[in-house]
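Wait, can you check?
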Amino acid sequence: MLNNSCAPQTLEQMTSDFLDVMYEENPFSLYARKMQVSLENCLSKIYSTQTLACFQQLEEQGLPRTYLDSIAIEYARNTPNTRILTMYPNAQGHDDAIKKIISRYGKLVYTKPVMLNRRGVFNIMRAFYRHHMWIGRRENRYLGLMKDTKRRHKKNSPTRVYLVEIDNDDISRQVKEEIRQIFGGGKSSVHINDLYAETVEFARMFFNENSIHFLNHCELNNDKYLHECFEHYRKHILAHGVDHFSLVNGAVKAFYGRGKTKTLQYICRDNVPKLNAVEGIEYVSGTEEQQANLYNPEAYFFYDDVKFLI
């Protein structure tokens, strides 16, 4: 477990703690070694009270966005009161006021502007509101969501994403309400997730450039059988650790809308439980490259909390 106290640690301790948590499942991966080289001079304060300033300092020192995103995801995984606050592209400006509201009620950890086209906004909203009836269904191409996306998207304007620490739902609602007042009181400006499990899911979705590319370019797949297989697979990996599994090959093209498949092929770490034999889902050993990249965020994307190896 990462040391979240303000007690000073040596760089070696910080690097060791970070890598122990982030890469304990794959300690000899090439990516872990790359991370250690990149982080050895700049991890001394990442879990202090000045977290946002630390991220900014790391960025100024040239740490690539891939690594900053990975640290932010790991922070969310190890801090249960974190949430993702999302400012839709139709709500621009007032950045200082938004940060002041967040800081008044909680802690601002990490920020990232994400360029989403209309399809990208549609897809993040499909993730946010997947259990809401008003969005429609796959069979009618999510008609309600299509209409609402038009209100929240604005061409050439970023979606601003904030990783924040907020202690409870009442405070979260207060933050959301005060931000809404800045933009006229409507509900279409800001979203904050309610469940901690969603924080990690949405962090993986936003804090990975491959995931953002998927959001902007995937085509809606209406194959009912494929989605039934997907939900069966998703239920299994949520119970056994989503990081240790990845869909591969034709499944990736099918969910991008660039091909068809009747079988979801997946790889996984050797010592995790595989799915029982079921039609439409197949374990494959994968290529040597696929196995090497199972934990490399430059080689996969997440959507619906499922990893796809590209």
Q: What stands out?
A: Confidence is low (pLDDT under 50) at residues 1-12, 21-32, 40-44.
